[in-house]
Write the structure tokens for this entry.
Amino acid sequence: MAYNLIQTQTVSTAVPSITFSSIPQGYTDLYLVISARSSFATGSVSDLYVYFNGTTTGYTSRWLQGNGASASSSTSTAPADPLVTMANVAANTFNSVSVYIPNYAGSANKSYTLDDVTEDNSTTAYQRIVASLWSNTAAITSLTVSEANGANLVTGSTASLYGIN
Amino acid sequence: MTDILQKLIIDCSTGEATYVPLTADEIAEREAQAAAWAEQQAADATAAQAAADKRTAVLSALAKAAGLTVQEVTDALA
């Protein structure tokens, strides 16, 4: 198994989303790595959405989450939603997310997994794992990471896409 | 002056990264997405509180029936 870097990009100005388009179809799986921080500063958590081909419907997921004090679990129909480090926690900290998408170019529905930690060296930090299904048979040709609640991904947020063969 | 919202698009076939202003439709979709997110957060919080309340009630009932404290029951089930 070899991980081949397709593209990596660090945002130089705050953006609501990052999209990888024209994804090559010659690999077996995709692996996405995200290091991001949100401009959102209200409450304790914010989410990212990860969705395919510009489509935000057809997703179902189950996530497990813990923060060191409590654990929880829930289902969601939002595009797989990792938590993101927020603007109201320690400066210069970012979350760390990895998404594994097998058989992305195939004609079956797309099941994939995601794990995530918010990084914060002074207060509560969260960890989340997500099992997701995108009920769509189209090959994945684009992939978007967006801030879920209308805020931005701040400067320095990075996304890297790997092809696996 | 209002900041122009831009999205970042990376074309994997060329390696070119481009910042593109959001269209009016994309801004509207983003606002709808944010509203849905807030609604989901509120629903999750309500469900979590209901689960916590139910757990507390069950632990209290068990403790009372067994002649133990809630903490003793909690520790035994941990």
